[in-house]
Amino acid sequence: MKHKVATTVNGRRYEHEVEARLLLVHHLRDNLGLTGTHIGCDTSQCGACTILVDGNAVKSCTLFAVQAEGRSLTTIEGMAKDGELHPIQQAFWDEHGLQCGYCTPGFIMAASYLLSQNPNPTEDEIRKGLEGNLCRCTGYVNIVKAVQTAARTMGGAQVPAGKKAAMTTGGE
After folding, report:
1. Which of 15, 34, 36, 133 is least crowded, fewest Cβ atoms below 10 Å from its Cβ?
2. Low-confidence residues of the chain, pLDDT below 50?
3. pTM of the model
4. Phi and psi dihedrals of 41, rounded to 5?
């Protein structure tokens, strides 16, 4: 049995009929063609599928599409405006906060939520805010630097330019 789902995604309204068991991540990718939201583990461990739901960071593999009825969703595709990267996206580029890039959209969305709640996070607060996202390629140093740079660019953090982040494995 299919259910009608109406959502606003990246400022655009969509209506689709979906199976009750369809995960939101699959709805975004398969029905809406928004493939920037990645499927990394299907167990909510990696965070590659993180999006914003009504402004809150959510792993889209943990929700059914029907649970998004009437909600406002933001995916990585909704971050850039008028062909300009969002400051968080630019900071990830500038600080090389990515390697293969597979986890990057989820990290950017988690960072967006973090900076919306705390525009001036400490290094520890950044690491805590991103601990639900895993990167298999890096030591997280440049990811943390990217969030610090984005915070400064967006008017938040005043981190000394020479400060280096300690290497950790993130959410472990």
Report:
1. 15
2. 159-172
3. 0.89
4. -145, -20
Joined together, the tokens standing for residue 17 give 């009929």
**Separation CA 83–CA 140 (nearest Å):** 28
- Reading the block at residue 153, the tokens are 């660019």
Distance between CA atoms of residues 11 and 77, nearest Å: 11
Q: Where are the alpha helices (DSSP H) in the chain?
A: 24-26, 87-94, 104-117, 123-129, 141-153
H or E, element range at 137: none
Q: Please tell us whether the domain made up of 2-78 is placed in CATH 3.10.20.30.
A: yes
Domain 87-153 has CATH 3.30.70.270: no
pLDDT in tens, 73-106: 999 999 999 999 999 999 999 999 998 999 999 9
Long-range contacts for 99-104 (Cβ within 8 Å, ≥24 apart)? 99/135, 99/137, 99/138, 100/137, 102/38, 102/40, 102/48, 103/38, 103/40, 103/46, 103/47, 103/48, 103/133, 103/134, 103/135, 103/136, 103/137
First to last CA, the chain: 40
- Pull the structure tokens for residue 157: 């953090």
| In the chain, domain spans | 2-78, 87-153
